[in-house]
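Subject: Interface between my chains keeps coming out wrong

I've been trying for a while to get a sensible model of this assembly. When I model each chain on its own everything looks fine, but I need the whole thing in one frame so I can look at the contacts. Pasting all components below, labels as-is. Any help appreciated, I'm running out of ideas.
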Amino acid sequence: MKLWASRFHSDISKETLDYTETVDIDKRMIRSDLWASLAHVLMLCHQRIVPMQDGRALVKCLLRMFDDSESGRLRLDRALEDVHLNIEAELIRQLGLEIGGKVHTARSRNDQVVTDTRIYIREEIIKLCEQVLRFGLDLIGKAREHGETLMLGRTHSQPAQPISYAFWLTSYSSILLRDAERLLNAYTTVNKNPLGACALAGTSFPIDRQITTRLLGFDQVLLHALDATSSRDFMIETAATLAILMSNISRLCEEVVCYSGFEHAAFDVGDSFATGSSIMPQKRNPVVAELARARSAVVYGSLFELLTVVKGVSLGYSCDLQQDKPPLWRALDTTKATLSILNSQVLAIKYDPYRAKQGCWNTFCTATELANHIVQEGNMSFREAYDIVGRTVKELVNESRTLADAERVKELLMLNGVEIGIDQIEHVTDPGRVLMRQQSPGGTGPKAVVEIVRAVSSDLTHLLENCREKSAAVRTSLDCTLRIAGEFINGHELFALLAY
Ligand code: ARG
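Reply #2:
Try treating it as a single job with all components included. I did that and got this:
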């Protein structure tokens, strides 16, 4: 029997059930639903809406179900549509309609489902945020050994200027720091309590929404009942944050794919992150990075699915909104798995500084520094120096030479009226030495990178601490609810218990 059957003449068809039920999707929210139900019943008793005796029976059952859910013994029945009706039906099965039927006083599935979702995703957000921060710190750990390791920096995907491998690695730490900040902002949006909004309009029962807010570890009440039950922007914001994160990740993947190519051969992605070709024996394809790059599509798709599900749905719950969880779950799972494997992939990359050095010498990437030197030594404007070096590079390319040919560079500069000694030329065209000179704040010079490492790792560590505090607070709220519930069924006075 459906809990709502009384108004109906007949049951739904199997096809309708298959089309509408969400048990498989809701499974993840069992614990959240039980926790929220415990908090709700404790509040109902505290407010004398439900008699203590009945409340104790409900809480006892809910606690047992909580244990069963932990050990995987709590099974949900598809025929009961969703997690909420499953849990209510189980209470009624065990306690009868007279007592079990009291759990749903001053509550609706409409406030229940958003409460459960918020409880579930806030933990996922924090776990993801910790993953992002640890990834950022791992990159920094790797960077510490590579402050003077040359890498060819690019713009337009073309050789541009020498940078250090540490500079490249820490650029992604700096990016991931922002992703973590965005996740924590999403957490703030998510961690508000919609419970007590009921179906859409609140209730005539004298509920206390502060009690459930505290027990459930929410930062504050989400006050407006119609907004609380109708809005899904907290889910959209979370998915958008994940989409931005995946966009950043896809750029890292692109660089891994590109730099592990034979032409650059600066990165070796490692055998455990590559697969071979079925026909070309020489191939080793960086498939992990390729797939991770493509998985951004899954998360963008999820974001668009969510946006489209919610678009144009009038306020007040509509079943359209039930379609919100599959894309969000998918976005969370995909991002989590991608971060995990990519973190391992990047840590495993073997870097070949020799190839990078060759690349730097062969690609005129110190031409800018040669121009800078002419500005400083030759009392010339930058544009004049730029033109002279431009002409010099054009001629060297014609002659199939590089800036490594200091004698020829000297002659060509002389033709343009610039006189520089051979050792000075060698000094300002050597990629390794040029790297050492780029010491402006935020630049690639080793001292500047030490400063970047200090600033970014301090921020990452600070946010990691912030995440730990948040998950500890959530855990404490759950422990507190379970303890109060346990003491309540053992006969302790609820008013004293809830006055903590
Ligand atoms: N399973 C529903 C969902 O996921 C819960 C809310 C259902 N409310 C309703 N009035 N049918 O959105």
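Reply #3:
Confirming on my end. The pocket of arginine is lined by residues 22, 82, 109-110, 113, 317, 319, 321-322 (CB under 6 Å).
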